[in-house]
Amino acid sequence: MADEVTLLDFWLSPFGMRVKIALAEKEVKYEYSEQNLMNRKSDLLLKMNPVYKKIPVLVHHGKPVCESLIILQYIDAVWKGKAPLLPSDPYERAQSMFWADFIDRKVHDISKKLWTTKGEELEAAKKDFFECLELLERELGEKPYFGGEALGYVDIALLPFSCGFYTYETIGDFSIEARFPKIRAWVDRCLKKESVAKSLAEPEKVHEFILETRKGLGFD
Questions:
Q1: Distance from C-alpha of 65 to C-alpha of 79, rounded to nearest angstrom
Q2: 186 in Cβ contact with 165 (< 8 Å)
Q3: CA–CA gap between residue 5 and residue 3 (Å, rounded)
Q4: How far is residue 96's CA from residue 112's CA, in Å, rounded to a whole number?
Q5: What is the SS3 string spanning the chain?
Q6: N-to-C CA span, the chain
């Protein structure tokens, strides 16, 4: 089974990083296929995701599974024996799905605005970003992870965006550690896990890529 798992991805994608963490948690071996999204999309990607034509795509036994949160659910259902990602309790499961959906709907778009805007738009994006992290920090509370005592679905949904924290802080002139110490401590705690540390992009490389992109947009 392990030999028939392939991940189509792009190194900078937070959505692909989610899948990498989940596969690492489950100790699933897979083939990695880096997709060059800057040029023409590969025939394999277009074949495996003809609807959205986006990464990540998990190919298992030749069958594609698309959209990162759906892929996480699939991984959790197929490889049940180790490191459950979603709670078994229906209510807790629904809450995990709610917060992961919140991250997709809010955090992704707002974090992108932090490096694609300036002036008043940037200040508005910072305000929205702070509101999101405030809600997430409140949900985290005193727990080591969002799901409780073990890394889970919500943690994996949010963690990839932490790769951009240094860039957001630099461009927006603020400190996440000062404003949201529980979120910063949570990131550091998660990074102690090999499954997380080896799956996330290096913040320095993310920073370099985003600065080059900002130059292309005429911001710097």
A1: 15
A2: no
A3: 6
A4: 23
A5: CHHHEEEEECCCCHHHHHHHHHHHHCCCCCEEEECCCCCCCCHHHHHHCCCCCCCCEEEECCEEEECHHHHHHHHHHHCCCCCCCCCCCHHHHHHHHHHHHHHHHHHHHHHHHHHHCCHHHHHHHHHHHHHHHHHHHHHHCCCCECCECCCCHHHHHHHHHHHHHHHHHHHHCCCHHHHCHHHHHHHHHHHCCHHHHCCCCCHHHHHHHHHHHHHHCCCC
A6: 48
Rounded Cα gap, residues 57 and 7, in angstroms: 6
Tokens read off for 121? 């738009």
Task: Look at the block and give the residue holding tokens 């200040």.
Answer: 123
- 133 burial level (CB within 10 Å; 0-12, 13-18, 19+): buried
Distance, in Å, from the CA atom of 99 to the CA atom of 146, rounded to the nearest integer, reads 9
pTM over 0.90: yes
Other beta carbons less than 10 A from residue 126's beta carbon: 19
pLDDT digit string, tens, across residues 17-35: 999 999 999 999 999 999 9
Distance of alpha carbon 70 from alpha carbon 60, whole angstroms: 14
Give residue 218's pLDDT.
Answer: 84
